[in-house]
Amino acid sequence: MSTAHVGPGDYSQVPNPEQALKYAIQHIVGDRVEIIEGVITPVSPTWAHERAVDLIREQIGPRMRELSLRAGSGNLDLPGTENFYVPDLAVVPAELAKAEGALLPEQTVLVVEVTSPSNGDTDRTVKRRRYAQFGAPLYLLVDRQERTCTLFSQAGGLGYTRVEGPHPFGVPVRLPEPFQLDLDTDEF
Question: Which run of H or E residues covers position 48?
Answer without folding.
Answer: helix 47-66
